Amino acid sequence: MLGSMRLSIAGVCGVLLSCSGAPVPAASADKEGPADVPGAHVVVLGSGTPVADPDRAGPSTAIVVGDVGLVFDAGANVLRRLEAASGRHPALAPERVTRVFLTHLHSDHVLGLDELLAGAWVLGRDTPLQVCTPPGTRELVDGLRAAYADDRRVRTEGLEGLEDRGSEVAVREVSPGLVLRSPGRDGVEVRAFAVPHGSWSAAYGYVVEAGGRRIVISGDTAASEAVVEACDGCDVLVHEVCSGAGLRRLGEGARAYHGSFHTTARELGGLALRARPGRLVLTHILFFGEREASIAAEVREGGYEGELFVAWDLAGY
Ligand SMILES: [Zn+2]
Ligand SMILES: [Zn+2]
Q1: How high is the pLDDT of residue 176?
Q2: Which of 23, 44, 253, 316 could be disulfide-bonded to 311 (CB atoms 3.0-4.6 Å)?
C-alpha cells in the first residue's frame, strides 16, 4: 500500500522563485520516487527517526546495483522493508543481504541489527553478515549474539536444523577512507567520511560509487562542510533533515541538542546549493509537528534549486 499511494504536494508547496526570478520546481513527495533511476538504485527502506511513526520505519537506505544490495543503517523494521523492496529489487531479499554499513550507534540506527543478524538467518542467509562500522560496534554485536545464544542453539541443534554459519557476523570497525572495493560488472566502491554528530566520537557518512553513479549518504550530522566536500556534484545526496520551524517551537535545551546533532532544512538548502547534487533526497526527517511541504519549502529558502525529494519508505531515487 505504501508504494502505491500517491500524493502530490506541488500545489501545497506552490512555486518558489529563485534569486534570478526563475521558478524553482516544487519538491516531489511522490511515494514511489522518480521514474528515471539510472544505474545504481537508491531505495529508502526507512525514512524515520526515533519517533515511532507507523508510516516511516527506522532509518535505513539501500543501494542496489545488479545482484548486489548494500544496506546503510539498520533501523527498526528493516527486515520487513527489505522483503517489501525485494519484489522490485531481488538483491534486497532479506536472506541475500550480506553487507551492512552503520553510520553510528544511536539506537534508532541499529534497532534492526538483530533483525538482520537473527531474523535474516532464519529466512535463509547462509553466509555471515558483514558489518562495516565506526569503532565501538563489536561490543554491541557481541551482546546481541549473546542474547540470541539460546535461539541459535535451538535452531541449529533441534529439528529446524539450521546451519550455524549464516548466524555468524563479521564486524569490521573502520576509519574514514575506502572501506569496500568490489570489482566486476556490478562493481562497487564505498568510502566512509567523518561527520559531526553532537557528542558521538565517531559518526560517518558514506560515498558509494556504483553503476555509474556517485551517491552520498549523510548519516546523522549537524550541518557540515564534510558533506559538501563528499558530494561535490554527486548524483544523489541522501541527507538527514529537521524542520527549523518546528525546532523553534521547542525548548532551549532541545534546540541546543538538535542544533549540535542535526541539520535544519534551511541549513541543508544552503549546503546543497554548494554541494550541487543532481538529486537531493530528504530522509531521517524530524518533523516536529511540520509536514513534508513546509520542510521542502525551508530547503528552498536555504537556496537549493535543484531536484528535491522528500523520501517515503520504499521509494527509489
Ligand atoms: Zn538518527
Ligand atoms: Zn544519531
Answers
A1: 98
A2: 44
CA of 136 to the centre of ligand 2 (A): 15
Among the bound ligands, name the one nearest to the CA of residue 203.
2
pLDDT band at 261 (very low <50, low <70, confident <90, very high): very high
Q: Which ligand is nearest to the CA of 104?
A: 2
**Residue whose cell numbers read 517551537:** 249
Ligand 1 geometric centre to CA of 239 (Å): 11
Q: Which residues does 146 contact at the CB level (< 8 Å), separation at least 6?
A: none
pLDDT the model gives residue 110: 98
CATH code reported for the domain at 31-310:
3.60.15.10
Domain borders along the chain are: 31-310
Compute, in angstroms, the gap from residue 35 CA to the centroid of ligand 2: 31
How much is the average pLDDT of 271-280?
A: 98
Judge whether 93 and 116 are in contact, CB under 8 Å. Answer: no
Q: Is the pLDDT of residue 167 over 50?
A: yes
Query: Ligand 1 being an ion, which residues bring their Cβ within 5 A of it?
Result: 106, 108, 220
Give the list of residues 6+ apart from residue 119 with CB closer than 8 angstroms, or none. 79, 94
Question: What is the value of ipTM here, to two decimals?
Answer: 0.99
Q: How far is the CA of 11 from the centre of ligand 1 (A)?
A: 30
